[in-house]
Specification:
Blueprint: H1 2-11, E1 13-19, H2 23-32, E2 38-43, E3 46-52, H3 53-65, E4 69-76, H4 78-84, H5 89-106, E5 111-115, H6 122-131, H7 148-158, E6 162-170, E7 173-180, E8 194-199, E9 203-212, E10 214-215, E11 222-223, E12 228-231, E13 233-235, E14 241-243, E15 247-263, E16 265-283, E17 286-289, E18 300-311, E19 314-334, H8 337-355, E20 360-370, E21 374-386, E22 388-393
Length: about 400
Amino acid sequence: MLVEKFLKYLKGYVIFKAQGIMQEELIGKCSEEKIPLKNIKLEEMGFTAQTSIENYKKISRAAANLGMRTKVIKKYGFGFWTFKHRKRYGIIAGAVMFIFVFSFLSGRLWNIDIKGANLISEEEILKKLSENGVYIGMKIKNPDGIDVINLERTLVCNIPDASCVVLNFKGSNLEVIVNEIHHEKFIIDDETKKYNVIALESGQITDMTVYDGVATVEKGQAVQKGDLLISGVVDGKKGKLHFKNASGEVKAIVEDTIEMQIDFDQTDYVKSDKEFIINFIKIGNKKISLTFKKLPSYPYNHSENSRKLLFFGHSMPISIGVDSYCCLEEVPIKLTREEAKNICLKDLENEEINRFRNCKIIDRQIVSKVKVNSYHIVCKYLIEKNIGGKREYFVENSEQNLN
C-alpha cells in the first residue's frame, strides 16, 4: 500500500472541475475509454474528480468536444513539487538521491524471517539459503522468476532435520517456515541387508525383549563385547532356514567410570571501568564501522546496542548502533579443598545426566584424592542399560532368503 502511494506521488495527479450540462456524457465517455476517475462529486453544473496528469489531457479534449470546460483545482506529485522548488537545487538533488536509494533498496532482499526452527539453528538455515543463491542483499526484482518449489526441495534434502521448508517472498522480506523431523527410537532397516543383534559392551543380562529373531542368551548370563544376543537366522518348516532382521532390547548391568579433576589455582575475569566503543551502521547483514579503531587485544565482554531506522513508521533494512567492548581483568583465585570438592561434584552430576540419560544407575562408589595442586574424584558405576546393537551378516545363498 505504501509503495503504491509513493509511485502515485512520483507520477503525479490532479483534482479538476468540469463545467457544463453534459457531465453524464463526459463520465460515460471516460468509462468507455477506460480513463479512471476517482472521488467523483456531482454538482449542479458539472462535477469534480481526481485523475492522473496523462488522463487529464484526454479528459480535457473530450470535454471540449462536448462543449464543456475543465479547470485544475489542485496539483499533487513530485513533478509539481520540483517545479515549485526548481531554484532550490539542494532540495531537488536530495529528492533525486532519495528516489535512487529507495529504488535500489526496494529491489533487494533485506530481511529473512525464520519460523518453526527449534532444533535446527538459524545459522545453518541461512548458510543453506546462501549456498543456493538466497542471501541478504540479493536482487529480487522479479521474485516470480525464482523457482521456489525446486529451492524448497533442495533445502529439505540439504537440511537433515527438516521435513518441510516453505518460502514466502513478500517484497524485500522472505519468510521461511520450517517443519522439523521428530526422531523416533527405532531404526528403519535397509531391506537389502540382514542384521543380528550383538553386545556393544560386556555385562550381565537382566532383561530381554525379542521383537524378531531368536535369542541366543538367557537372563542372568554374562556376555562379552561382540557376543551374539539375538540371531536373525531362524529354523523354518521342512528344515529350511529363514534369514531375517533380528531386533530387540537387551538390558544388562555394565561397569563405567567417570573421573573429575579441579585445580586449586584458578583464574577469574572481572569487569573493569575500561570500555572500548565502536560506532557502526548496518545495511542488511553487512556491518560498516564508522571509526578506524581496531579491536582490543585484551580479554573483553562484547555487547551490541542497535536500532533500525524507520521510514513513515516502517522498519528499514538499515541499522545504526554501538559495539561495546568491556575490558576484563584477570584475578587469581585459590580454591579451598571444600570449594574444589563442590565443583567436582557439580561437574560429576552434569556428566552423569549427559552420559546416563537413558540408563539406570544401580550403584556408584566415589573415591576422592587430594593432590598437591588439585582435587581428584574417581567414580565407579554399575549401570543398567540396553547393550544391544545391530551388525550385518551375509547370506551366501540368496534364494534361501525368499523362503
